[in-house]
C-alpha cells in the first residue's frame, strides 16, 4: 500500500438514548472525548473523534439519542462538521442494549435498512445481562431480521472491542488521511472544556438538573510565566430559581462541579488550570 494512503473512513454511531453510544465512542477512540452520564440526551450535538492506528484512520461520529430519515436526508449530522456528505459515510454502528428491542429500535432499524450504507448491529452492555442464556436466542432473533453483522460488546468492560474494531476496518476506504495522524478530536478546546463542565453538572445534580443548561467559555488564557490556564465560564440556565440548585447551600454544589471539572480539564490540557465558574439566568435582565 502507498505510504501516502491508508484505510480511512467515517463511522456513524446511532441508537436511542442511554444505550452507551458515548461510552463505546470513547472506547473506540481510546480517550474520553464524548461526555457520559446515566441521564438521557447527554449528547446534545454530534461529536467527532479520530482514531489512528498503523495504516488505519477511523473517524467516529457520536450522535444524540435519536435518529431518523430527516437526519439522513439533510446531512444534518455531518453538515458544517466535515466536508463529507452522509452518502460518503463508510459504516453505521447501530447500538442497542442488553436483550432489549423496543419500538424505537425497530423504527431506526427499518430506516437504516433503506440506506445503501453498511450497518453493524452492536449489542452493548452484555456485562449487565444477568441471564447470559438469553443472549444467543436474542442474536438469532435479530439475525432473522437482517443479514448485517451482529457483535455483542461491553464498552464499559472493553469486551469484544478489538473484534468490533477489526470488523470496522474492513469497511474503510483506501485513501489519503483526512486528518493528520496527531488529531484525536475535531472540536475546539473551548467546546471540549464546556462539555466537561456540563458533564459534571449532570453528575452532581442528577434528577435535580435543569435539563437545558448552556456553557459559555468567556475567556481562555494561558499565562506563560505562571504556566497555568485561566478559564472563565458562565453556566446559563433558563430560570432564576434554578441558580440555587446549581450553586447549592453555601456554594457546596458549584464547588464540587468546579473541582471535578478542573481536574478533568487539567488532564486534557496537561497544564494547571484556574477555573472560574459563574451561574447566570436568562431571566436576569427581566428581574
Textual characterization of the structure:
By secondary structure, this protein is an alpha/beta fold. The protein folds into 2 domains: 5-176, P-loop containing nucleotide triphosphate hydrolases (Rossmann fold, 3-Layer(aba) Sandwich); 189-286, 2-Layer Sandwich (GMP Synthetase, Chain A, domain 3), CATH 3.30.300.20. It is 30% helix and 26% strand. The strands form 2 sheets. Strands 1, 2, 3, 4, 5, 6 and 7 form a 7-stranded mixed β-sheet that branches. The chain has a 3-stranded mixed β-sheet with strand order 8-9-10. Strand 8 and strand 9 (228-237) form a beta hairpin. Helix 6 (189-205) runs antiparallel to helix 8 (252-269).
